Amino acid sequence: MALLRRRRGKIKFNLARPILVLGLTAVLGYLLGFSHGYALKGSLWPGGSPSQIGLAQQEDFQLFWTVADIIGQKYYGNFDLGNLVYGSVQGLVAALSDPYSSFDLPDTSKQFFQELAGNYEGIGVEVEYRDETLVVIAPVKGSPAYEAGVRPGDIILAIDGKDTSSMDLVEALAKIRGPQGSKVKLLIQRNGQNIIFEITRTLVHIKSVTTKEEDGVFIISISKFAEDTDKLFNQAVSDILKQNPSGVILDLRHNPGGLLDSAVEVANEFLPAGKTIVEERFRGGQKTIFTSDGSGRLTDIKLVVLINGGTASAGEIVAGALGDNGRATLVGERSFGKGSVQEVDEFADGSTLRLTIAEWFTPEGTSLKIGLKPDIELSDREEEDIILSKAKELLKQ
To answer: Active-site positions?
Structure first.
């Protein structure tokens, strides 16, 4: 899921996009750089005229207004003015040629926020385009896609027989989603072989945090950084501290990302004061550095973090922070590599703008775009979770 910042009010929230997920994961930043209910204004450039903000001269838009005027005067047929406005804005954002930036209509935006809340109808898979190829970031654990055998890195060639190379991400997501009980057919390429999956959609509702104890070791699994993560994670930490654990395993496998705030809070829980969690770099050289505040309750407990090819965005932020600060051993496979940040602005009509505004770097300055290399590289087998077994072994040493 893409790292997203979501903004409320003028629209301010925070998110991350792998992503876009089929359960969409986005990373809401800091204060969730998202604005809820952005007031639509008369000017195309709310911050000033194009010339004032250095983007273009006002007269450059004469072609746009001329075409709009010709349509209004001569088009032989009915048209909806609202649809023309939506189409114009979608084209404006699409012209950036950035797979992570988009303008979404109200219905699509509503589904997006439902998915962030952990409830949606679909198959539970996070996807994104890479080099014009639709790639699975991660299936949500326990979802129909996960149970059917869809795996990170799978290439989706077709959805219900339609070639995905001709789709944009919003269209692809819309085709994969659907009412519970209906089916979707995916043509997937894996290791050069084509496989057909026919998956029944359902109401996906999955808690983002689960815990279990095995031989004195507590395993915290975070499936994504969603709206319930802070509450569930805080409860998990409180429960763990009552048990005097010998160690903690933080399982971030198949975690496509989510809310930046939640990712920072989780990392903060394991780090002493003053440690860099992640660095955000903007256009023009500006930086924002997120650091631990010293309130962490698990700073002295032995820790192993599990990652794989489905660990992306906010999941990579947490793993990178704990690994670079020498707080945890990373075990598993190289992570997905999702390092750009999308800010989400929600407007009064319910439409949203997702715009790439920054990149993320680990405490040691590694771009998350290349993914994280684990300290101990292992791949799971169908019959045995050898990554988890190795983590338990490390905690016993």
So the answer is: 313, 324, 338
